[in-house]
Amino acid sequence: MDYIKAFVIGGLFCVVAQILIDKTKLTPARILVSYVVAGVILGAIGVYQPLVDFAGAGATVPLTGFGNLLAKGVHKAVTEQGLLGAVTGGITAAAAGITAAIFFGFLIALIFKPKEKS
C-alpha cells in the first residue's frame, strides 16, 4: 500500500505541473522553482510533514520535498545556532542529496559518451 500512496501523491504533483505547463505561459523552470518555494512554505508552516508521513517517497522525492528539506534544515539550525543557522541550515540538510546527485552525474558522464542532438 505504501507504493500506491507514493505513486498517487507523486503522480498528482506531476499532473499539476503538466497542467501548469499546458494551460499557462509559465516556463518549466518557473514551475520547478515554484515547487521548491511551495515546499519551503508548506514545510515552514507545518503542513507538509503530514503529507510526508502519508505518502513517503511520493512527497519527499519531488521538488516540493527538497524545499521541505531546506525548511526543516534551516529551522533545526536556527534553534541550535541562532541567526547563523538561517544561512547554513538548508545547505547542511541537503548536502548528502546534492553530493549524491553530483557524484552519480559525474559517474554516468564517465561511462557514457555524450552526443549532440541532430
TrEMBL record:
Transmembrane segments: 6-22, 29-48, 83-112
Pfam families with a match to the protein in the record: SpoVAC_SpoVAEB
Keyword Membrane among record annotations: yes
Entry annotated with the keyword Cytoplasm: no
Keywords for the protein's UniProt record, in alphabetical order: Membrane, Transmembrane, Transmembrane helix
InterPro entries found in the cross-reference section: Spore_V_AE, SpoVA
The name this protein goes by in its record: Stage V sporulation protein AE
Taxonomic classification: Bacteria, Bacillati, Bacillota, Clostridia, Eubacteriales
Encoding gene per record: spoVAE
